Amino acid sequence: MSLIITTMEQGFIYGILALGVYITYKILDFPDLTVDGSFPLGGAVGAALITKGMSPFLALLLAFLAGALAGMLTGLIHVKGKVRDLLAGIIMMTALWTVNLRIAGTANVPLFSQKTIFKNDLIDRMFPGTFRNYATLALIFVIAVGAKLLLDLYLGTKSGFLLRAAGDNNKLVTSLAKDAGNVKIIGLAIANGLVALAGCVFCQEERVFEISMGTGAMVIGLASVIIGTSLFRKVTILRVTSSVVRKLSFLKTTTTVFFGAVIYKLCVGIAIKNFEPRDMKLITAVLFLVILLISTERKRKVKGNA
What we know:
With 306 residues, the protein is mostly helical. The protein has helices at residues 2-27, 35-51, 56-79, 85-104, 121-126, 135-155, 158-168, 170-175, 180-206, 217-231, 253-273, 280-305, and strands spanning 108-110, 208-210, 236-241, 244-249.
């Protein structure tokens, strides 16, 4: 039971991270390595503000804005500086290592004695007795679902449709008298804002900030997106209208991303129970490779059948 609760908690946190990676990887087709820097950026901002007595809930918002700024700078380097997308992400990821150290003040900031979103008087009153064991999971779930719903609402707006078009067809965006480059910058800002939000939640859940907490964040996000979109791609329902049967998607892509994150963390959790903690990076790499091979094989079969 403890394994399930822990997996769900971290799965939903990484689900928020995966939403950001979904925007860059699936929508913009942008290999954004800024993620490995913006995830700990959210943790650094949260830790610095909380240790200074600021509300941990306000820290979430400011962490999102800090991540959005980092994503915007990546977009500016790529769009205005004409730097290749991969290199732009590497440059920003490298710069954020120093920025995160400057913000946090040190490579390790413990929060055990500080009030966080999971440890405060309000949470103690809302979850008395044995229910306190589920407070962290409930709060993470609310934050994750809130982030997902807000992203869904945005993607349904005119700006959201332009964002989708920017990844598929830049000429279409230009024909609508919009700058495709500016649309990409907005998309990268939103994506890294979500990643930094996940980092801030993770930092408060673990009650410590570590400068290296972002290492492999991009891999986790990509694995979650690929698992979710591959496994749940064909989940559909039938709707009958005027004697016409139409197939409709039952799960939004953003929802499948969350399922992918939970499944990924469950696989890693099971693997870690049978190996030593120092093997985690190797397990993560092997698991990600297997996921990619399965995904590639499925795409090949689909093309072959077509």
